[in-house]
Input
Amino acid sequence: MNHLILAPILIPALSAVIVLLTARADLRLHRSLSLLAMLLSCSASIALAYSAFSGAPQVYAMGGWPPPHGIVFVLDRLSATMLVLLGVLGLAALLYASQGWDARGKNFHALFHFQIMGLNGAFLTGDLFNLFVCFEILLIASYGLLLHGGGQERLRAGLHYVILNLVGSAFFVIGLALVYGGSGTLNMAELARKLTVASPAEGVVLTAAGLMLLFVFSIKAAAVPLQFWLPAAYANAAAPVACLFAIMTKVGLYGILRIHGLVYGLDSPHIVRYAPFLLLVGGAVTLLVGAFGALGSRGLRELLAWLVISSVGTALLAIGLLGTEATAAALYYMVHSTLAAGAMFLLAELIREQRGSTGDLLRPGPNVTQPTLLGGLFLLGALTVAGLPPTSGFIGKAAVLASATHRPEVVATVYAVVLLGGLIGLVTLSRAGSVLFWNLGPSPDIQPRAAGVGRVLPVLLLFGLTLGMSAGGGPLLELMTGVAAQATDTSSYIDVVLRDSGGHR
Amino acid sequence: MTLLLVILIPLLGAMLPPLMMRWGRGASAGSAILVTLAALGAWGSMVPAALRGEGATFKLPWIPALGLNLSLTLDGLALLFSGLILGIGLLVVLYAKDYLYKSDPMGRFFAYLLLFMGAMLGVVLSANLLLTVVFWELTSITSFLLIGFWGHRADARRGARMALTITGLGGLCFLGGALLLGHLAGTFEIAELTSLRDSTLSHGWYVPALVLILLGAFTKSAQFPFQFWLPQAMAAPTPVSSYLHSATMVKAGVFLIARLHPALGGSEVWFYLVGGVGLATLLVGAFLANLAYDLKGLLAYSTVSHLGLIVALLGIGTQYAVVAAIFHILNHALFKASLFMSAGIVDHQAGTRDLRSLGGLWRLLPFTAPLALIAAAAMAGLPPLNGFLSKELFLEQTLELPFAAGPWWLVPALATLGALLSMGYAVRFGVNTFLGPQPKTFPKPPIEPPWGMRIPVALLVAGCVAIGLLPDLLGAPIVELAAAASSYLEVEGVHFALWHGFTPALLMSGIAIVGGVGLWYLQRWFVPVFDQSIPLPSGERLFRATIAGLVDLSRSAKRAFHPGKLQTAIAWMILSVVLLVGSALLVKLPRWTPSPADIDPSLLGGVALLLLAIGAALYFHRRRAVSLAILGAVGLLLSMGFVYLSAPDLALTQLSVEVSTIVLMLLALHLLPAQSVKERVGLHHLRDGVLALGAAVVVGTLTWLLLIDPPTSATSAYYLAQSKPGGGGTNVVNVILVDFRGFDTFGEVIVLGIAALGVYAMLFGMGLPTRWTRPETPDESAYPLMLGVVARVLLPLALVVGIYLFLRGHNEPGGGFVAGLVFSAAIILQYLASGIGWTQHKMNIPFHPLIALGIFVAGLTGVIAIAFGQPFLRSWFEYYHVPILGEIELASAMAFDLGVTLTVVGGLLMVLVNLSKLPRSTSVRPLTLAEEED
Output
């Protein structure tokens, strides 16, 4: 029994608890504690990934109750990938937040770590109801974080975010009731096993359950037409929060990969036959609508939020293409787009702050204080987001397109959609960049202060990682192929969880 | 490795010029020159071997899964192009050093230029098609930066964006085509693609792949109908135009066609598509050049036209057509670079490049003028210059087409027309600028520029003349080598001669030259006609209108479909879930099998009451407090339902949750006006009604499905069996909560805690004034005495009940959660009865640590298990016999439950107290909801 599996949830939980217990203490203490905890949980995630990639999935039975009866954590390559991704993203967001954002409201560090805990739990759990609980933890923490910093616009965006996600949660519970009603279990592996032996009546209920969960995860992923919660929330959140939120949509994608890709099997008869088609069409629509929404955006952060939606579309489309190669491409793209979006939201704030009253509005304004640095980073980020070489975005897009060649019946549509979306993204970002850095108005009387190293560093860290993803694209894609192979191998998953469970009573 | 260096030196060396700016502009320019020389040196060391046909190669796997390798080669075609890129690049750097104005950031300029040079070298040296795409896009990006170098000017920004958009579009198509080609051939290595030509040509995806790749090439090389971006790109500083539009950027498209000709050429599609577009471009470009007033605009259209000529030759695709194409690539690069530089000198020195304000510069620029005139003659295709030779070859090739294209004379006639138009604009360029009458004034008095700007022109023109005079010596070897690499046929024995007898081509040349001069003579009449009365369709205007239209469309679409209203969002959500799940039900629903049901009438009565209450809550929804009170009643009815269904634990929990939430929500009503705004009756009500009905049908059907076939769960049986022996308690519900699924409870407790923290943070963030003071005694008038007394008497009783519920929880209905709610309710009562200030004063509990302590205690019971070598949250219990009290159970679950209780109390009270501090809604309206005016 590998107790380290608990580290990604217990470390953040403990640090949040300590922050709260010492609520009156100095913020600097909280900062150091918080950063240390994030560093530790990130290291734990990396250590876990190391062991996950070198062997079979590992099972941890909570309270020692054997699956399918108790709650299990299952560490496999997919969860490990998500853990590491969140680890580095969280680290960057927290570094940035510790430069002052954390002082602009209450309980930032506690909420932040609870959010990390919920996310890590969602990636690790092998139990559907526990997945719901983790979703609740991460959502309720995100409500608090979204409002961090106060202000009217943020409050309004936050209200919509809360209500829409509550509707999603309600349907999640209905979906879980259907799962339990149809299969008598909430354990993912057991559900997968039951699906293969379900009676027709149970089959209908379980199919409905699968689609209900697909709906719920699509809300989290912000697939069109369920994207409504995202643009305003991301555009108005504090920069480090928006950075961390870059992974929120990926939680939805993770859910689809885990529940529909692995437990149900997207190309199996347990869910409706047209499920992959739905993902393809939904992905295509999301990709285009996202890009198109970005084109008309008036502010940089709004633009980025729409591009996040577009990137979700690309990943969904790739998942819908089925097969190890396409799933690996989807995973690579997902990791890339998370890092890129995180970096861009941080960068957007640096730009906004240095443009005085014009802020992040895409109209002529004063030149930024650090034009070379911010302009250069914006260029790099725009290339990454738009999917131009030599960035990870290009490799991700090329991998998605290359995997589509194995599906001759849809290849033309996929190419048209992905390339058109890329073109709109390119137009959008070149318009934004040229107005932000070239079309300059008069300088303000007081030049805003330059951004310090502490706030540039997280941006550099995230962009550096995307560049690393590009330079090391070969081994990384291979690694993702391994993840994809394991994440679509249902029978091994059932075997590992139900037989080699580690539970004993 | 040296090959890789040739690319890396400029790419990495691009960092030097900005850094060297610290030591002045000279140092910056010097470093750019040194970097270029270094790359040239590395390249030069490989030339002898390449000329022997043993060009260097390099290969390093990058992304094997995609077939993307860092493979480079220096074959003939690459040799020619890399030589042009480096050679002209060096001259452009020299020229730019003196051309750039004092206000221009020189370091940045050279950085962009070197980056572009590196990307361009990558394109031509790449031996892997996907790698070509990578460098291809890099040239688009770096040229965007170069064209937009004077970003403060609107035309520069627009030109740069347009160039990026059009070439970016092409780049994406190229990527798509390359991936298709790579899939059908199984490789991206160009050498292998070449050897697979036959199977490629017969594959079903050949045409789509070809069209996509050609779209990439055509957009890059500004072929018709994408020619319009190139003149717009003239907003760039002239050294940039000179570089991008003579030897590099736009030649990349031509290069790609030549590169892939051996792998994809020879088909009918190729001939008609490439040849047709090339010929059309040749004519359109040449025609528009005759109408241009802007010196650089004229040269831009002329470039379009010459590129069309090369593309047309590659489309014809016979051995000699390819040879002619390659030869013209070389010649055009030389004369066009020098012409752009001359135009730059005119612009730089005279302050204008409008043909209407120029003339007679012959006398003022005695060094530049003859050079420019010679270059213009080369462009016109006059002997004995290099342009003449390749143009002759072109005309000759139009007579020997491999496929039929209309009557035999059509293509040669069109080609002659193209040559005639070329002659016309060449004369227009030379005569209107340098000869003829001198205007009264120039914006700047023109004098010869520094030598740094003159020498590059001179060297380039010398090249034009030398190749023209000694074509067989200077041109033939490299052209043969490059043409061999660009054709699927054998290319041998290439010879050029200035005089090759009286041929049809010579006749066509003669017609073109005479006609061209005539055309120039007529221009003063026909140019104004086109200028004023014949509106030419402008791709550029169309492009701008399209983008602006799309932006507007995006905005209005967002207003219509994404208006930031909750109703719209929720309507879409419900619609989605109804369609998604409903469709599955339609597909998979089993046949209706009605079964007689045994329904208890009292249950029906309860359900009716419940529905009635919900209806009433809806009916009174505008009066929020009333509606909320009715909702409380609904909750009570539900808990009675739980009692009826023998679920006392649920009933107890529901009851206490109901009480606490209703109290909290009543407090939250402070934030809102007492009545919500009256809604307008509209179509959206119909929409909502239909959606609600649909959702009800779907959820109702699902519930029915569950009820007719209740689940048989091994897990339920397991819990019942294991509750006492494994979990130590007889109350299965509680054992599930604290043991079987204790981890869920741990999470939910945290959720409760976070919710409280979130509310606290939110209220703090709203920055509302608080009306809370801390009086020593309760305000008698506000808080009735009787209630206060009763509440205080009740407190210890309620605490005892709570403790009782807590302790019996493991075996009887009760437990930590319910106990926590009871504790909270008792304390809430104190707040209600005596006021927040007084109560807070008497009972000062710090809520943050209380919440944290609860989570900590619950978590600790789990972690202690690990210390004993057990899994997280593994429970421990033991029964002890204590005299008098009887059998007593001690269990780790109790500690866990204690944690639950603490957090529940802390969280609820924190929300309560902070909500109570809020001012009345009459004094402040912190939140106006747009939805309410729907």
The first helix of chain B runs from residue 2 to 13. The longest strand of chain B covers residues 57-63.
